[in-house]
Amino acid sequence: MYLHHVDNDRLANTFFQRDYHDRGMLKWGGFYLSDHTSALTKMHAAEQVEPLQTRQTQDEVSRRLATAWRRKKSVHLQLNVWDANQVAVTVDGQVAGVDEDQIVIQLASGRYQTLQLAAIRCVSSGNAV
84: buried, middle or exposed (CB in 10 Å: 19+, 13-18, 0-12)? Predict the structure, then answer.
């Protein structure tokens, strides 16, 4: 019995030209873990720019924060602070307390952030945009 010897490069070229059908990035979709997909979702959501809200008076901001604190509701704050991309910084969380003209917000991560009342541009309930 005689086996026909075929050059490896020629055999590989023939295989890829006739037999192999590349599915592109589709084949890699199964390798994503849930952590990866949730991180990608958060990353894409963070890329969306929130429009600049109408500035509320300090009385209106104080009233809304007090109401959210009494009802233990989460708030979405747009600040008078700009990030590196010239976009208004936003903070989401629950009002944890007040210290003179400072507001303490408990973030979803469990950490606390202190904000000056004058730095808050707009208060809305929940994650409203």
Answer: exposed
* Dist. CA 121–CA 79, nearest whole Å: 5
- pLDDT tens digit sequence for 8-28: 788 888 887 887 777 666 666
DSSP conformation class of 83: -
Instruction: Give the amino acid at 18.
Output: R
Please give the helix or strand (H or E) that residue 69 lies within, else none.
Answer: helix 58-71
SS3 13: helix
**C-beta separation of 95 from 75 below 8 A:** yes
In a domain, 3, yes or no: no
Q: Are residues 83 and 121 in the same domain?
A: yes
Kindly report, residue by residue over 45-103, the tens digit of the pLDDT.
Answer: 666 778 888 999 999 999 999 999 999 999 999 999 888 878 888 999 999 988 788 99
User: Do 119 and 63 fall into the same domain?
Assistant: yes
pTM of the model: 0.60
Two tokens, residue 24: 């592109």
